[in-house]
Amino acid sequence: MATWRLNRMSLSKQPGRLSATGELQNFRFDAPNFVAPPRILAGYAELKVRLTPRVYAAVREGFMKTEPVLDTQGIAAPEFAPTLQTTEVGVGCWLHPRVLAKVSYEIAQTAGSTGSWGNVLGMQVVTSFRQLQWGWK
What we know:
single chain; mainly beta; 7-stranded antiparallel beta sheet; 3-stranded antiparallel beta sheet; 65% strand; elongated
């Protein structure tokens, strides 16, 4: 039986106006027919600065890299998916204590490809809802 294993490490530091977060994850797919099973290493680091009590700016760098694979028949590959790297720059504004509007631009680079087809300009409105107390009784 094949299983996924996850090793994860998170880091967070928030001293006042400047905050930093990051995460590193290592996935390993334990398949029965592999000597060197498929593995994925992924992570990100984010820096955020509060410009005013309602406005912030942030930058995030992320990546996903795969490891070499080898099966029991001797078939090998240096990687089973291309390496992916992203950089995102954005600003956000709290419109209400539970409503955030943000605009960001993400630059995505995939190993072996050129151009800016993967880049994204995003605009989001993010909100949260209080739990419906009557809905769960």
